[in-house]
Amino acid sequence: MDFSAISSVLQTIGRLLTMEVTSLWGVKDQVEDLQRELTWMQRFLKKVDARKLDDDVVRSHVAEIRELAYDAEDVIQTFALKVAPKKERRHFQSRITNLTRQLQTYKLGDEKSRDEAFSSYSNQRQELRRPYPHIPDENVVRLADDIKKLVSVLVDDFSLYVSICVLGGLGKTTLAKRIYHNSQVIDHFSRLTFAYVSQHCQKRKVWEGILYDLKILDEADGKIKDEALAKKLYDFLRKNKCLVIIDDIWSTDAWDLPKPAFPVIRDMRSKFLLTSRHREVVSHADRSGYLHELQCLNDKESWELFQKIAFRQTENTVYTGMEGLGKKMIHHCAGLPLAISH
């Protein structure tokens, strides 16, 4: 089971707390609460993994917890990037507190009741909190052209690998999820999968997750060797028309681990959409693939995004005096959609 998302955000929080940055901004209590929840969640996942609990409910919850961890890291990274005036602190406080509460929905009471729940967890059939991958936020500026271009390349172009390269905070994951939910993409490919290749990638977990999404993971697959599992995925992708979206590849080393299961056959119908913060990573994956680079928002686009988030859609005008304050706030965001949205 991949714990790297939670480990990564715990490391980020640990650095901030060590530097005492959070105490300067008045959000130390909220960050420490989040740290406690993530630490508990990490223990929870390790216990689930140790007990070999592996059904649809477990997989869904693990995916949701991992996504919350990525959300938490985005918030913390945005916080570290910004020089936030005092009036913005409550936005961070609210966002961090909300993430903590979402994580708390997975807590099962006291330690005794949690242990009892772990024993029967594989038999639970709880209603899932939300689908995965999440349907992206509607408050997205300027992505329409990017989506149109990427969909066109995926559907019509001969590029086997299509890559989105962008700095953290510019919306690569949001764009990838938009592609995942695009009706033209859904109609074109027979099956789709959304996976992560994290900093501490476990290749078998990546392969199993993709096979599960493609609806071809069998109980017997848990007993076969890595080479056989990789070959099963390789052969299926070679013979079928799938879109494999792999988000947030940290390094060339991380990519090299699961790569043996991904065919490089120019005339096959399956395609790969990769995202990374590092251009050398996507170039390493396929030097002849299509590279799409996102740019920072300009002042007009930054202001448009801020208005969509800060004011109700029914409001046609910005209250007197608020425009100046808002533009001062977005000036500190350096055109990063993630910083503006939080």
Provide the fold topology:
Elements: H1 4-19, H2 21-25, H3 28-50, H4 56-81, H5 89-104, H6 111-119, H7 143-156, E1 161-165, H8 172-180, H9 183-188, E2 191-196, H10 203-213, H11 226-239, E3 242-247, H12 252-256, E4 271-276, H13 279-285, E5 290-293, H14 299-310, H15 322-331, H16 337-341
Parallel strand pairs: 1-4, 1-5, 2-3, 3-4
In short:
The chain is an alpha/beta fold. Helix content is 55%, strand content 8%. GO terms for molecular function: ADP binding.
The CATH architecture name of the largest domain reads 3-Layer(aba) Sandwich
Measured between the Cα atoms of the first and last residue, the distance is 30 Å
State which percent range the strand residues make up.
5-15%
CATH topology grouping of the largest domain: Rossmann fold
GO molecular function: ADP binding
Domain Disease resistance N-terminal: 5-93
Protein name: CC-NBS-LRR class disease resistance protein
Pfam families: NB-ARC (PF00931), Rx_N (PF18052)
